[in-house]
């Protein structure tokens, strides 16, 4: 009897341990490639002359004071806020409009299919392709300048990516164009999941299109919209490839963001301590947003 009970306990333990055995390789890989590098960067932020010097000096919070008082970092924060806020708002508006167009009953299935391919096209390109494409179009001799000069909107060609006044707006426009399909596809999926009974009931009550949109559509899409905004905030905050391959943070720091600032500190100036400090500050902001995102997901569940 005792042997049977002992065997039963072993079988139960084995079944309980089996999922963790399958997860172990992934957990080990994440620990090596994610946790350890993060801990190393956090440690570097409290030392001076790391990596280059074999005996780095512990300086505590001095690196944080230096970074937060660096004029270039303050410019990067200002540019990043403009880049992120404008991109998120534009993504939401454009994605919502296109999703509503694709969800309307006034278009046929073939027409919707064609529009879906066209609207989702920017999401299919990599950052390098997008950067090269837009650099060619925004070139002083590119197609954009040809169109606006042909329509007599301007007299001379404009250097969109080389002007301090226009460069940040141009890069933000590129990011908006490349990012709105994610919103469109997600919102469209949410719209198709809303029960038609709600709209039929609102029509019987005499609600117009505007009232239906704000009383039914938006509340039903609220969990999706919050998730999209939080994810997009983190992704846009960390956007690097697009900016680096179009302007490199220039001209004269006009498009310098936190991500390009960190890269320059580490791989141009070889100030790995300052780069680590900037990365930790960015990590803290993303972690706070991530906590809100997880809480929102749990409350939705």
Q: Which series of helices and strands comes N to C?
A: HEEHHHHHHHHHHH
Helix content: over 70%
Assign the CATH superfamily of the largest domain.
Answer: MetI-like
Radius of gyration, in Å, reads 25 Å
Q: Pairing-aware structural class of the strands and helices?
A: mainly alpha
Percent in strands: under 5%
Return the CATH topology of the largest domain.
MetI-like fold
Report on the biggest sheet: 2 strands, antiparallel
Cα distance, first to last residue? 44 Å
The CATH architecture of the largest domain would be Orthogonal Bundle
Low-pLDDT windows of residues: none
Secondary-structure blueprint of this entry?
Layout: H1 2-44, E1 47-48, E2 57-58, H2 62-68, H3 71-103, H4 109-120, H5 127-137, H6 143-150, H7 167-192, H8 196-204, H9 209-237, H10 241-246, H11 258-267, H12 272-300
Antiparallel strand pairs: 1-2
Helix pairs in contact: 1-12, 2-12, 3-7, 3-9, 7-9, 9-12, 11-12
Features:
301 residues, mainly alpha, two-stranded antiparallel sheet, 2 strands, 74% helix, ABC_transporter_permease
Polypeptide structure, described:
The protein is mainly alpha-helical and 301 residues long. The chain folds into two domains: 29 residues; 239 residues, MetI-like fold (Orthogonal Bundle), CATH 1.10.3720.10. The chain contains twelve helices and two strands. The chain has a two-stranded antiparallel sheet with strand order 1-2. Helix 7 packs across helix 9. The chain is flat and about 75 Å long. The two termini are 44 Å apart. The mean pLDDT is 88.
């Amino acid at each position: 009897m005792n042997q049977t009970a002992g065997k039963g306990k072993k079988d139960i333990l084995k079944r309980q341990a089996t999922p963790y055995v399958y997860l172990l390789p992934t957990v080990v890989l994440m620990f090596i490639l994610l946790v350890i590098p993060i801990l190393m960067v956090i440690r570097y932020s409290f030392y001076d002359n790391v990596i280059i010097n074999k005996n780095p000096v512990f300086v505590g919070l001095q690196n944080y004071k230096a970074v937060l008082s660096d004029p270039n970092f303050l410019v990067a924060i200002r540019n990043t806020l403009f880049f992120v806020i404008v991109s998120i708002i534009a993504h939401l508006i454009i994605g919502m409009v296109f999703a509503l167009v694709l969800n309307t009953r006034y278009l046929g299935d073939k027409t919707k299919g064609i529009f879906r391919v066209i609207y989702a096209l920017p999401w299919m390109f990599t950052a390098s392709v997008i950067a090269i494409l837009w650099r060619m179009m925004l070139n002083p001799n590119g197609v954009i300048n040809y169109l606006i000069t042909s329509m007599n909107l301007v007299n001379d060609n404009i250097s969109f990516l080389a002007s301090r006044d226009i460069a940040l707006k141009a890069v933000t426009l590129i990011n908006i164009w490349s990012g709105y399909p994610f919103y469109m596809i997600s919102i469209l999926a949410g719209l198709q999941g809303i029960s038609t009974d709600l709209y039929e009931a609102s029509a019987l009550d005499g609600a117009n299109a505007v009232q239906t949109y704000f009383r039914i559509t938006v509340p039903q899409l609220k969990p999706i919209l919050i998730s999209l905004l939080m994810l997009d905030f983190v992704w846009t905050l960390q956007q690097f490839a697009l900016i680096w391959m179009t302007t490199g943070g220039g001209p004269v720091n006009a498009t310098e963001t936190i991500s390009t600032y960190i890269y320059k500190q580490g791989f141009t100036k070889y100030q790995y301590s300052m780069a680590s400090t900037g990365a930790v500050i960015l990590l803290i902001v993303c972690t706070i947003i991530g906590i809100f995102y997880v809480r929102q997901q749990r409350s939705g569940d």
